[in-house]
Amino acid sequence: MEILRCEGVKKIYGAGNSQVAALDGIDLAVNKGDFVAICGPSGSGKSTLLHILGTVDKPTEGKVVIDGTDLSDLNRTQAAIFRRRKVGLVYQFYNLIPTLTAEKNILLPLALDKKKPNPEFFQRIVRTLGINDRLESLPSQLSGGQQQRVAIARSLIYRPALLLADEPTGNLDRKNSKEIMDMLKLSNRNLEQTIILVTHDEKVALEADRVITMEDGRIIRDEKRG
After folding, report:
1. Which domains, from first to last, does the chain contain?
2. What CA–CA distances, in Å, run from 164 to 18, 40, 98?
3. Is-contact 37 10, C-beta < 8 A?
């Protein structure tokens, strides 16, 4: 089942002779349950594409459909609501609220929507991510790897159609990086979560089931692994 489709997506910055094409006609389809890595050097367009998929930015041309919703039909308020409910975002900076416990940070998206969590699903997430014994801790009492796990749990709690991870291991050492990638793979397998991960690190990209390589705003390679 297809969860994401991009058709002829372009993103152009500037005007006239100073125009820069950050994305130059991206065609992409991702199925539910896929774990996809997008890699490429700085300036290849991978982060621009991620921002468009996360409704943080809009394409200059082209079409993006996520879980049956055409993103071009959404105004700014609708895009923000869609992002909160349908797209999980994980960055290399954890963006946790320092005065809230790990549990309250995880449940924050539901609180914003005035929704109650499903206790069984909540426990499934925190056990999968190995943080069920740190729920009462503040972010300052957690290691970097633990904070990133809380950030991942927060992005999963409302069962998004798509989890977007932007350099999620960028601030972590090798040991914690491997643990976070293992957690993402577990989330993909055990929670059937569709994941698109952006990274400049080829070793991290090779952990995914499908690796897309970008260069100069275009997809130059699309390989399935395993």
Report:
1. 2-224 (3.40.50.300)
2. 30, 16, 23
3. no
Which H or E run includes 28? strand 20-31
Per-residue pLDDT of the chain (226 residues), as tens digits, is: 899 999 999 999 988 778 889 999 999 999 999 999 999 998 899 999 999 999 989 999 999 999 999 998 899 899 988 988 899 988 878 889 999 999 999 999 899 889 999 999 999 889 988 899 999 999 999 998 899 889 989 999 988 999 999 888 887 788 878 888 888 888 888 888 999 999 988 888 999 999 999 999 999 999 998 6
Up-side HSE of residue 111: CA atoms within 13 Å toward CB?
8
- Report how far residue 96's alpha carbon sits from residue 10's, in angstroms, rounded to the nearest whole number: 32
Cα 173 to the chain's mean position, in Å?
20
> Could you tell me the two tokens for 118?
């499903």
The β-bridge partners of 35 are: 195
Q: How far is CA 140 from CA 98, 100, 146, in A?
A: 7, 10, 10
The answer to whether the CB of 46 falls within 8 A of the CB of 218 is: no
Tokens of 153: 């749990």
Other Cβ atoms closer than 10 A to 185: 15
